[in-house]
Specification:
The complex is a heterodimer. Chain A has one domain: Transcription Regulator spoIIAA (2-Layer Sandwich). In chain A, 43% of the residues lie in helices and 29% in strands. Chain A contains four helices and five strands, in the order ββαβαβαβα. The N and C termini of chain A lie far apart (34 Å). In chain B, helix 4 packs across helix 5. In chain B, a hairpin with a 2-residue loop joins strand 9 and strand 10. Chain B is globular, with a radius of gyration of 20 Å. Classes of the chains: A alpha/beta, B alpha/beta. Chains A and B meet through helix 1, helix 2 and helix 3 of A and helix 5 and helix 7 of B.
Chain lengths: 110, 275
């Protein structure tokens, strides 16, 4: 299942799907960094992620760090319970801006 | 109590066993150290292997890790038969298995961060920044955030164990072996490690095999406990079943009563005189 992307509500939305593991996290990282290089505010949609491992989470961490340096907005949406438990393990649930969906993020942006 | 026969049929009936041992026999010279061991560990389970010194638990662990060849019996890890496994298949299998050795086994010439990153360098082609973040994340998980530039010699015993655990889990293994996590640690640090093992299972759905002789720790974290004694399995069951086992030797171990063997005067004399 390939990763996708769309533009909505002023954000580039990277849609990760299926397993984001050692084999596929480089692709996720490249996609995230590509949009940040284009200076897009970015949300990563995890709603169709079945499994994300530490390499996938590391790609999200790197993306967030780059976005902060570049003054771009970044966040996660549609985070499943399985993904959330991996984020919680490293206390990253307290680091990333996490919203249920794009509308919730936009509402929070004010 | 699970008899060897019952265990075998149990093993056959379990599709999701991540560790399957059948009729494992091992010798050191002429001395039999494992005598027909049958063991099954289910996916997502925390399984404790316990027993006193000389019970055979370390030998069993060495076999499970592929550090000793199976001379008699069978071992399957994550569905793969260890005997006769091809080198490439073994490599693939090892990517899915983490091991935290008793002494830590950190390389003294490398920093803690380099030690933790080592399996990623060996088994993946991930970007340098991804590997660094993964290593730091795992150090955070074991409460060693900010220690990546320390040398192993600068760590306390408990910190060394946690660093070794960070290295063991850096690849998000499906199966984690943890050898004597509590040995030599004070009760608070030991309880912290127990808590960490429980969190890893919950968050990563790891199957975890812990070899220990620490009863308190075993009872705190185990789903099931296998008790080894003189190379044989006395019982392999839930904590409650183990606690209430009628087997006197199990109760001796649980109540820390030393084994009292009847003295064979002739054999004793022969041992003393070397005959």
């Amino acid at each position: 299942m390939g990763f996708g992307h769309r533009t909505e509500g002023g954000y580039a939305v990277v849609e990760l799907r299926g397993d984001v593991d050692l084999a596929r996290s480089p692709e996720a990282r490249a996609l995230i960094l590509q949009f940040l290089e284009q200076r897009s505010d970015l949300l990563v949609d995890l709603s169709e992620v079945a499994y994300i491992d530490s390499s996938g989470v590391a790609s999200l961490v790197e993306g967030y760090q780059v976005a902060k340096k570049e003054g771009l907005k970044f966040g996660l949406i549609g985070v499943s319970e399985a993904a959330l438990s991996v984020l919680r393990l490293a206390r990253l649930d307290q680091v990333f801006p996490i919203h249920s969906d794009l509308d919730a993020r936009i509402a929070d942006d004010g | 109590m699970v008899t060897p026969d019952a265990q075998e049929s149990d093993i056959a009936g379990r599709a999701e066993a991540v560790v399957e041992v059948q009729d494992l026999v091992a010798h050191y010279g002429r001395h039999k150290v494992l005598d027909g061991v049958n063991l099954s560990v289910e996916a997502g389970e925390i399984h404790i292997i316990m027993g006193g010194s000389g019970s055979g638990k370390s030998t069993l662990l060495r076999h499970l890790l592929g550090l000793r060849r199976v001379s008699s019996g069978r071992i399957r890890l994550l569905g793969q038969e260890l005997e006769g496994i091809h080198r490439q298949a073994l490599q693939e299998l090892r990517k899915q298995i983490g091991v935290s050795f008793q002494g830590g086994a950190l390389l003294s010439s490398m920093t803690v961060g380099e030690n933790v990153t080592l399996p990623l360098r060996e088994h993946t082609r991930l970007d340098e920044s991804t590997m660094a973040i993964m290593a730091r994340m795992k150090l955070e998980v074991v409460n060693l955030g900010g220690f990546e530039h320390f040398m192993p010699s600068q760590l306390s015993g408990g910190m060394t164990k946690r660093a070794a655990l960070a290295r063991a889990i850096v690849m998000d293994p499906k199966l984690l072996f943890f050898d004597e996590p509590s040995a030599g640690l004070d009760p608070v640090v030991s309880a912290e490690l127990d808590e960490l093992i429980l969190r890893l299972r919950e968050a990563m759905h790891m199957s975890i095999v812990v070899v220990t002789h620490e009863l308190e720790s075993a009872f705190r974290i185990a789903d099931r406990i296998t008790v080894l004694d003189s190379g044989r399995i006395l019982i392999s069951d839930t904590v409650e079943k183990v606690k209430s086992s009628p087997n006197p030797r199990v109760q001796d171990l649980l109540n820390r009563r030393p084994r009292v063997e009847e003295l064979d005067a002739d054999a004793y004399l022969a041992r003393l005189t070397g005959e």
